[in-house]
Specification:
By secondary structure, the protein is α/β, with parallel strands linked by helices. It has a domain of 192 residues: FAD/NAD(P)-binding domain (3-Layer(bba) Sandwich). Helices cover 33% and strands 23% of the residues. Strands 1, 2, 8, 9, 10, 11, 17 and 18 form an 8-stranded mixed sheet that branches. An 8-stranded mixed sheet has the order 5-6-4-13-14-15-12-16, with helices on both faces. A hairpin with a 2-residue loop joins strand 10 and strand 11. Helix 2 runs parallel beside helix 7, helix 2 crosses helix 11 and helix 4 crosses helix 11. The N terminus and C terminus are likely disordered. Bound molecules: flavin-adenine dinucleotide. Flavin-adenine dinucleotide binds next to helix 2, strand 12, strand 16 and helix 11.
C-alpha cells in the first residue's frame, strides 16, 4: 500500500497517493501558464470553490483564468470523504435565531441546497464520479446525542426536508453497526468520488472557455492600475478581479486570509474490498455516515466495496503503523466482528477550521474576493460559496435567491501557535469522548 505523504505546501506538486487518485478517470490535459495574459477574473486555486466560481463566471460570459499550484483537486477537494451533506454546524433554528427573520430562512434554504448544486453540476456536465444520492446517516451514541439528532431532524422536518429519525434497530440495519442507540437519515445527501468530481468540474470549466492552468502557483499578487497582476513562475495574469479559493492550502499569498483559518489534519484509510457477505451487512444501501463523537469518524463504501474511514489526522510524517492505530481502533469499535481488515490506502488532507465554525465569504476590497473555512463540510458548501463568490464579482444577486453573509476578514490571534492549540484540543476532545486510555497518546 502507499503510505501517507504530508504535503501542506501547495508549491509541491507530487500526486497524492490516495484511493481517489488510484481510481479517478484522468482530468483534462492542462498546461502551466507560460506567457503574460489578461482576463476579467483570475481565480487562485483549482478545487471545488475555485472551479464552481469559474463555471458560474463563464456562464455569465466572463473571461476567466484559473491558476492552480499543482493539479485540480490537489488540495482537500481531491482528498476528502466525498460525503455531500447539506447544512452547517448550526441547525436551522439556530441559524434563524442568529440571522433574523429575513436573512435567517433564506440562509437555511441556501445551506440546504448545497447538494442540489453538486448533483446538478454532475448531471449538467455528465461527470463520471460514482455519484449516489443514497442519503447520510448521523448515528448517536449517548442519550444526549440521541436527543440532539432528534431535535435536528425535527427542525429540518418542519421545513419539509426529506429526513427522518432512526431507532437503534434501523441504524444497525442501515450501517451494520450495533454501536449506536439511534440517529437520523438525511435523504438530501449522497456521496461522490471526490477527485473524479473535481476533475470533472475542471473539464467542464475548460469546455466553457475557462483557461485552467495547472502547476502554476501564484507567487505574488500586486496592484496594477485598475486591477491586479498575478505572478506565477513562468507567466503573469492581469485581471480586474481576483477570487482566492485556497482554503486550508492557503500559503503566503495573502497572509491575513491564511491566518483566518486553522489547517487541521484529517486522515483516511481504505480497506481492501469487503467480501460480498460483509457488503450485505455494512452500509448495504451505500449511505454515508458521520457520527456524533467530538472527534468524529466518517465512513462510506467506495465503488469497489472498500470501507473508507476518516478521522482526525496528525501533523507531520508518521510511519504506517502509527497512522493506522487510531483508525483501526475506530473500525474495531464500529465493526467488532470484521476482525483485522487489510488496508489498500491511507492519505492525509487539511481541513480549514474557523473559530465560529462556519465558512466565510469575504469581499477583501479593490476587486478581491474569497470563500473558505468549510470546517470539513465543503463538498456541498463549496459548490454554493463558489457560485456566491462569483456573484460578488459579478455584483449581482443570485438568480435562485441563495444568500450568504459577507463578513470582514478576521485573522486569528496567535495563529502561529495554532498547531499546538489543535493538538491540545484533540487531546481534550478525546478525553471527552472517553478514548484517552483506549488509544494511548500520539
Ligand atoms: C481528509 C478530508 C476529508 C474531508 N471530507 C469531507 C466530506 O466527506 N464532506 C465534506 O463536505 N467535506 C469534506 N472535507 C472538506 C472539503 O474537502 C473541503 O471543504 C473542500 O474540498 C474545500 O474546497 P476548496 O476548493 O475551497 O479548497 P481546496 O480543494 O483545498 O483547493 C485549494 C487549492 O488551492 C491551491 N493553491 C493554494 N495556494 C495556491 C497558490 N498560491 N496558487 C495557486 N493555487 C494555490 C491548492 O493547490 C489547492 O488545490 C474533507 C476535507 C479533508 C481534508
Amino acid at each position: 500500500m502507499d503510505w501517507l505523504t504530508d504535503i501542506h505546501d501547495a508549491t509541491h506538486q507530487e500526486e497524492v497517493a490516495s484511493l481517489w487518485a488510484a481510481t479517478a478517470p484522468p482530468g483534462p490535459p492542462l498546461l502551466p501558464l507560460v506567457a503574460d495574459t489578461v482576463a476579467d477574473v483570475a481565480i487562485v486555486g483549482g478545487g471545488f470553490t475555485g472551479l464552481a466560481a469559474a463555471i458560474a463566471l463563464a456562464d455569465a460570459q466572463r473571461d476567466v483564468v484559473v491558476l492552480e499550484a499543482a493539479q485540480p483537486g490537489y488540495g482537500a477537494s481531491g482528498r476528502n470523504g466525498g460525503q455531500v451533506i447539506p447544512g452547517l454546524k448550526y441547525d436551522p433554528d439556530d441559524l434563524e435565531a442568529r440571522h433574523g427573520s429575513d436573512l435567517g430562512p433564506r440562509l437555511v434554504r441556501t445551506v440546504a441546497a448545497g447538494p442540489d448544486l453538486v448533483f446538478e453540476l454532475i448531471r449538467r456536465f455528465s461527470i463520471d464520479c460514482d455519484a449516489r444520492r443514497a442519503g447520510w446517516i448521523q448515528p448517536s451514541h449517548t442519550e444526549a446525542t440521541r436527543r440532539l439528532v432528534e431535535r435536528r431532524a425535527a427542525q429540518w422536518q418542519a421545513r419539509r426536508a426529506p429526513v427522518r429519525v432512526l431507532d437503534a434497530t434501523e441504524v444497525e440495519a442501515l450501517t451494520g453497526s450495533r454501536l449506536y442507540n439511534g440517529g437520523w437519515l438525511d435523504e438530501r445527501a449522497g456521496t461522490v468520488q471526490p477527485l473524479a468530481y473535481v476533475r470533472g468540474l475542471a473539464r467542464a470549466a475548460v469546455g466553457l472557455g475557462v483557461r485552467v492552468h495547472a502547476e502554476s502557483p501564484v507567487l505574488g499578487l500586486e496592484s496594477d492600475g485598475g486591477g491586479w497582476r498575478l505572478r506565477t513562475p513562468r507567466g503573469t495574469v492581469r485581471a480586474r478581479q481576483v477570487i482566492i479559493a485556497t482554503n486550508a492550502y492557503s500559503g503566503q499569498l495573502h497572509g491575513a486570509l491564511r491566518r483566518s483559518v486553522v489547517a487541521v489534519p484529517s486522515l483516511q484509510v481504505a480497506t481492501t474490498p469487503l467480501s460480498a457477505e460483509w457488503r450485505q451487512r455494512i452500509l448495504p444501501g451505500r449511505h454515508a455516515v458521520s457520527d456524533t463523537y467530538n472527534l468524529l469518524r466518517y465512513y462510506r463504501l467506495d465503488a469497489a466495496g472498500r470501507l473508507v474511514v476518516g478521522a482526525r489526522g496528525q501533523y507531520g510524517q508518521r510511519s504506517g503503523a502509527q497512522l493506522l492505530r487510531h483508525h483501526a481502533a475506530a473500525i474495531a469499535e464500529i465493526y467488532p466482528d470484521l476482525g483485522r481488515p487489510e488496508y489498500d490506502y491511507c492519505w492525509n488532507g487539511y481541513v480549514a477550521v474557523t473559530t465560529d465554525h462556519v465558512p466565510h465569504l469575504h469581499d477583501l476590497g479593490q476587486g478581491i474576493y474569497a470563500a473558505l473555512g468549510y470546517n470539513g463540510r465543503g463538498v456541498a458548501m463549496a459548490a454554493m460559496l463558489g457560485r456566491l463568490v462569483a456573484g460578488l464579482a459579478l455584483d449581482r444577486p443570485d438568480p435562485d435567491g441563495y444568500v450568504y453573509p459577507v463578513t470582514p476578514l478576521a485573522p486569528i490571534p496567535l495563529h502561529a501557535f495554532s498547531r499546538i492549540g489543535v493538538r491540545a484540543t484533540i487531546g481534550w476532545l478525546r478525553m471527552k469522548d472517553g478514548r484517552w486510555l483506549a488509544e494511548g497518546s500520539t
